[in-house]
Amino acid sequence: MSRQKGTKPAGLYIHIPFCQSKCGYCSFVMTTRGRGDDQLRLSLLEAIELELIHQLNRYGISQNLQTLYIGGGTPSQLSAAEIDFLFHIIKKHLPSTQWQEITFECNPEDISKRPEIINQLNKHEVSRLSVGIQSMSPKGLSVLDRLAHREQINELTKWLPKEFSGSLSYDFILAWPEQDLAELLKYDIAFLESNQCQHISSYLLNIEEKTKIYHSLKKGRIESCSEDISTSIWLKWQSCLKELDYEHYEISNFCKKGHFSLHNTLTWRGFEYLGVGPGAVSQIGNVRWSNSGRLSYYMDKLKAKKSPVQSAEYLTTEIQWQEALMLGLRHREGLSMPDYHHKHNLNISKILSQDFQELCAKGFLSICQENVKFTEEGWLFFDDIITDLMLKLENSKIM
Ligand code: SF4
Known about the structure:
Elements: E1 10-16, H1 38-59, E2 65-72, H2 80-93, E3 101-106, H3 108-113, H4 116-123, E4 128-134, H5 138-143, H6 150-163, E5 167-174, H7 181-194, E6 199-204, H8 212-218, H9 227-243, E7 247-250, E8 253-255, H10 262-268, E9 273-276, E10 281-284, E11 287-291, H11 295-303, E12 309-314, H12 317-330, E13 335-336, H13 337-344, H14 348-351, H15 353-361, E14 365-368, E15 371-374, H16 376-380, H17 382-398
Parallel strand pairs: 1-2, 1-9, 2-3, 3-4, 4-5, 5-6
Antiparallel strand pairs: 6-8, 7-8, 10-11, 11-12, 13-15, 14-15
Helix pairs in contact: 1-2, 1-11, 2-4, 7-9
The structure holds iron/sulfur cluster.
């Protein structure tokens, strides 16, 4: 595929699937097989290099890559020497001067046990550290089956801002079974009042089948968070973060001025991204594909000079307008209706005019200078509203 070099920004994602144990809510591509198996971790890094070389040659995307995101799984399961090796691989094929942002995901207990990891991240100019806190409540950490305990996280987050040279992003999960407003205020909000970071990602817990939490709920061992409580938690969360000077710039993300995630923003705006590693997803041109999440399969294929891709889809014009609508409305800036019309040949201000009026009257949407966006309350019902709007657009195309 030939492309004009350096004109369009793109992101590189590297998936490190290793985890110490499986969290109660986890449905991601992960494995605990890397624990104590130095050879397996090394083999994965070697397979990642093979895939990276192949994909960079194939797509000629090297000079467009501006953001690097190392996620998982848990990248902080790698030792300091393995992190060094991973950056050595990346630097061999991509000059470090091209990165506008480098993000590395970690779990608190790994950094507490092996603080030397932070020196490696500083040395390799990692600019964002994304820390999986998830909850500061002892009950929350237990329900979610997290390994870190509250005191450990408190200690770490006092130390981290002094030692890590980039910015910090903390992940939280809200509305876990049996969470209530009092728990949120006592633990999570109180923590953020005394431990400020530059960025927060937060998600209402989505309970997937085959997870431990799903089975515990089914067996009645724990009770799910009711819709009313989950709504009050969400509204309180966003209003407290606003008071703490965080901008709610995307449905699940908050940041201090200027500290938004560039990598994720490029993805949300439809720019290309290359994903390497087991289970990683890539989108280049009008094609999106996913690697197999099975570690041995992934490594064996690459060793045999074969593709580890498991599935691919062509992004039809229909998928493109659907995703542009959804991703645009997830963002604080919303969607410019004339731009959308121009790009997707769909006049949403006309086709959805009645829906928009009704949603504005309910306080779920606002329209200003031909720009439509969700309100804080509207974002609570995002999935239902967006499904309705898409159906309406779909029908208007058929008629
Ligand atoms: S750390 Fe993340 S990927 Fe690993 S088990 Fe927990 S939720 Fe899953």
